[in-house]
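Researcher: Structure prediction, please.
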Amino acid sequence: MQKYQHLFDTSHLQSDLKKRSLRSGAVTLSSQATTFVIQMTSTMILARILTPEDYGMMAMVVAVTGFAGIFINLGLSTAVIQRPEINHEQVSTLFWVNTGVGALVMLIVAALSPVIAWFYQTPALKWVAVALSCNFLINGLAVQHQALLNRQMRFVAIAVIQVGAMIAGIAVAILAGIYGFGYWALVLNSLTISVVTVIGGWIASGWWPGLPRRNVGVGEMIRFGSDIVGFNVVNYFARNLDNVLIGRYHGSGQLGLYSKAYQLLMMPITNLRDPMNRVAMPALSRLQNAPEEYRNYYMKFVSILAFISMPMVAFMFVCSDQIILIVLGEQWTGVGEIFKILSLVAFIQPLSSSRGVVLLTTGKSRKYLILGVISSFLLCLSFVLGIPWGAKGVATAYAISVYLIIVPFLYLSFKGTSVTVGSFFSAIYKPCLSSLFMAGVCMLTLYHLDYDNTLVVILICFFSSFSSYLLANIVVSRGIKDLRQYIDYLKIIFRKK
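Model: Predicted structure follows.
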């Protein structure tokens, strides 16, 4: 329809893509910072209301039912973002595909809920699985609306929806926890976030789907999306088999510790990586036919991601015990060792996973699938090898496998594109060296501190880490060239149009 044409046209994004990307990045990072504060606050509250067993119950179900969620999107949102041209009829048809699949998956998961309860030998999981199955239909209604907002780089609207949904979900969870609902507080949190996200997406996009039609040219997008679904399927097993194995062989207690350690560590990382990927996807998709500009944009993207994420993870590694004590409380002290091991993974994984962005934005979805199958098999193998030693064994095997495969998989992913393994490491080596130096300074600071107040210890370590990181960057860069470049980025972000 002609009235919706402005929602599908992206020609206006080509003008000053750098400024648009930086401003979009600032918006998404600001929203994610807000989200992070909300998540941390709610985690501190809920961790004192709920028990590790409550989180373990939720993790058991999510590890299984989360697999079904892969099929709701079908990779069609990425296809809409990556495709140079789309129209109302195509997106409407894809909407009904997503909605129909969501309804089907909801029915299948509800029917399989007794099997989930039997597998974990926990009858109460049956109704938890039934309740969470409703998410599939609800989320199916939001896929294309979110994709259109992302394609148009309308990240302010996306941010408002995300933050609003999270606040609503957390408010419901805290109230439910206070009134003794236990693990059902976490279930209600998930359902509330899904409902608010759907409502916000429909209102913000201003798009209403028409009836599905045949022969409107969605076949190529469905084939592109099927490769992404294939990747997500095998990747899901690689990301969740650890939870399944720990829950099955070591119980909800160890799984609760492991899943909470992973969640706490990945909370700031995800809130940084995901919005940056969200900005990079449409921007790099518009540059896929300009190799040199594409490579330069990618290197700046990875460099900024490394500049922020690497020191963040290094600080969390050194001060893990203090962070856990403040955020989670004394009942979670068993998380510490697992947290440290997983932080070794988080130091490099957000950066190495950017190879997927390169493959998708250059249209290499089949290679994306093939490499995903191989890497997932290797990660699953590491979990199996580590399970005899419990949660710590799984975390250790996971960390080793990630570092063993990084270089060959970067090479295979970048082959045939303008990006190289050398350009990847060239973009991250300065933040890496500076972060390692910072970690050493932070360790020395922590070793010589003699304060009973944990918050004071963290604040002192933070300021010593921050100053030493900036100093190390100046030394490694042989001046302040890189820091000046980041300041220039800030000027572009806040410069008036």
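Model: The longest helix spans residues 219-286.
Researcher: Thanks, that helps.
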